[in-house]
Amino acid sequence: MRHESVPMYWRNIPQYYRLVAKRCRQCGAVYFPPALRCRCGSAELEDYDELPHEGRLVEYTVLYQVGTDFLKQKPLIVGLVELNGGVRAVGQIVDAQPDRLAPGTRVELVFRRVAVDGRHGLIMYGYKFRPVQP
User: Fold this and answer.
1) Nearest-angstrom CA–CA distance, 10 and 64
2) Which runs of E-coded beta strand occur in 52-105?
3) Where in the chain are the domains?
4) Phi, psi torsion values for 16, nearest 5 degrees
5) Are the beta carbons of 51 and 19 closer than 8 angstroms?
6) In what order do the strands lie in the sheet with 30-31?
7) I want to staple 79 with a disulfide (CB 3.0 to 4.6 A). Which of 13, 56, 60, 117 is the partner?
8) pLDDT in tens, 12-51
9) Cα 79 to the center of its chain, rounded Å
């Protein structure tokens, strides 16, 4: 698995750890992951407070054939989540069985190890989602 550079990883920590987004000063649109330019054409984007940590599953797919770096995570579930407030994020769905998921399932944000860069000794963490237990 090709990992990003250590400096690039550190620059992205606000997105990976805190779900920091960008908001357009012109029209108010919120972007996650952060964008450089708004769909209204404005480049005036500011940091937006941390996004909510709960939402609902909009859609998902299940990967049964995965690369060697993901064999322990098989089947790998990737979903589109609409966070409370309306911003959408794509992420891995963990702690779930594919046959027990459905659009509308309530999910919450969790932080998990994503990769280990043995060359630099860096353990990379990031956000994933899991179903909320009733």
Assistant:
1) 31
2) 54-63, 76-83, 88-93
3) 6-131
4) -70, -35
5) yes
6) 30-31, 21-24, 45-48
7) 60
8) 555 555 688 999 999 999 999 889 999 999 999 999 878 9
9) 9
